[in-house]
Amino acid sequence: MGTILSLTESMGWRGIMGFEYGIVQGPLGPDISGPDLVAAVANSGCLGILKAPDWESPDYLRELIQRTRTLTDKPFGVGVILLFPHEENLKVILEEKVAFLQVSWGDCSSQLVTRAHSAGVKVVPQVGTVEGAKQAIDAGVDGIIVQGIEAGGHVIGQEGLISLVPRVVDLVGNRNIPVIAAGGIVDARGYVAALALGAQGACLGTRFLASEESYAHPIYKSKLVEYGETAYTDIFGRARWPNAPHRVLQTPFYKEWSSLPPHENEANQPVIGHSKIHDLEKEIRRFAGTVPNKTTTGDHESMVMYAGQGVDLIKEILPAAQVIKRVVEEAQLLIQYKP
């Protein structure tokens, strides 16, 4: 028992960065990980991450953060895509002293980290390469989410977790920087596998997307259970976010249009729906990179549906707390540790 307990502690079982468990809920865009989901995850002892708007909307973001705080007194994070306008949003995150700033698709500079630390905010970038991890370490980050090509949504790297995670773990060495694996992990087996690779935690996206509290449209959630295959593609959102490949469900619409010519994009396509995304009313055109949320009307089944490679293991929509409970309890059994 002593050996198992030591192994368990060394694998980060008792949590990372002050959280009870080493489970992170990835920021689900554009607004799928809202206050309800983030609070449910935080209240279960894990790190929940809001998704900030991909445009400057500081007043709305402040409201989003404060709404989340009415649902939980636990720490949580906010995810920002650095490729899009974010300076005003960042100011709000630091002013509100949110526990964690999660950043992706951009340079996580030492200046950004210093600025966040000055406000008492920890920085956890998402990277997809060893080079990205090295830059993050040099910048002084507090943790690193390592995203493999198995992940759903926009994928920044080209390498699988089984080779990428150990390399980043070795690079981190004895520095106090937790490595968190992301990509295709939906259950206890994936979580324990990530720990065995040397990670101290796992970031789950698609599994929390398919939760009761996520802001995804019910049709989107049902398709996550119905379909089991994904594809790595670039046919959605080319005009708004060029050179940003993504992993999606292989829906009938995707299969019909998977060979979309490179010169085509959503800009000249017909409008197939409408949605309120964060604080703005938006048209959704065919091939847009915007998933359907609860407000979305129109031809839902022709819209993009991001999902990671582990989606076929998701058999039902569950409350976020139950997702976490299952992962924790089944992982304990897998590593033969009974408290």
Overall description:
- This protein is of the alpha/beta class and 339 residues long.
- Helix content is 33%, strand content 17%.
- It has twelve helices and 14 strands.
- The chain has helices at 2-10, 35-43, 58-69, 87-95, 110-118, 130-139, 161-172, 188-196, 206-209, 218-226, 252-257, 320-334, and strands at 23-25, 49-51, 77-81, 100-104, 122-127, 144-147, 153-154, 179-182, 201-204, 230-233, 246-249, 271-277, 280-285, 297-298.
- The strands form three sheets. Strands 1-9-8-6-5-4-3-2 form an eight-stranded parallel β-sheet. A three-stranded antiparallel β-sheet has the order 7-11-10, with no helix packed on it.
- The longest helix has 15 residues, at 320-334.
- It starts with a helix and ends in a 5-residue tail after the last helix.
- It holds the Pfam family NMO.
- GO terms for molecular function: nitronate monooxygenase activity.
- This is Nitronate monooxygenase.
